[in-house]
Design brief:
Blueprint: H1 2-5, E1 22-26, H2 31-42, E2 46-51, H3 54-67, E3 75-80, H4 86-97, E4 105-108, H5 126-150, E5 157-162, H6 192-217, E6 224-229, H7 244-251, H8 258-261, H9 263-270, H10 272-276, H11 278-281, E7 285-287, E8 293-294, H12 306-322
Parallel strand pairs: 1-2, 1-4, 2-3, 4-5, 5-6, 6-7
Antiparallel strand pairs: 7-8
Helix pairs in contact: 2-9, 4-5, 5-6, 6-12
Amino acid sequence: MGSSASRKFDPATDLVDLKGKVAIVTGGNAGIGFGTVQHLARGGAKVYLAARNEERATGAIARLREAGYAPGNGEVVWLKLDLSDPRDAKKAAEAFLKKEERLDILVNNAGILSGPFEKTSDGVSTMVVVNYISPFVFTRTLLPLLTETARKPDSDVRIVNLASITAKLTPSNVSFKTIEDFNVTGRGSLMPGLVRYGHSKFLDILWTKTLQKRLDAASPPIPITAIAIHPGGVDTFTHRWVFPRFFGWLVGLFVADVEHGAYTSVFAAAGKGVRERREVYGGMYLESKPVGRIARTRTDGRVEDERLGREMWETTERFLEGIGV
């Protein structure tokens, strides 16, 4: 499945020159994030693998080094990042700013897929904090450096937010007037957990589109490309099963392996096609078949609602101001 789904995109030939470029990939120690880090490093970038657990992060980096970074011979280093608290997300971004003088690519990949409904000590859904609010803070803190890099000659700065096709499950009466509106429980639905996840990814898509509008409306416009993507079905689990090789082969008949499952992320982060048509891809939502396909979100136009986007942004900012972030 991996090869057929990715036939029209090949990271070995279809990436921009990444030598001298700096990237951050959150949640890069496993799954799609791991594959994204690998492709960007092989393209020649210095990639910060942002993750909470040092042991898992350094273990992932060791596996990447063992596999090799050729032909681009990039570099991978760990950046401590905990998305469970927006305050910690800000600290991680500030730590990065002390290390580097440019940032060309930011891939907000990390997130929670499932779990019971629960709130953080600040009174907001844990899933929304991890999947949207903390990435919002992380990105906002890094934005001055992203902007500075984008102003350099021959720049190609991108922000990629991993979303999901499940955004279509967001309730039709979605609103973001108060922070309590972010606490969708999914109660009454057949799959409440999936509704909560889809709602958090709806936020990511709406955020991406609103961010692009704000970048374009700046004076002068900030030449950063913001893209939301649905990576498609990816096998990030059979390695933990009994007989992983067999089940990996079986599951691979239906979904992509990690290497190919990261292709949409990598296309959005560094594909030549985006650079050549930035005005087309800015603020768009992409799906994986074929890689980089601009798609409809099936949300009845709700993610295109500029009023809703402003409402979401303003409520997020008020909440962050209230907790001192």
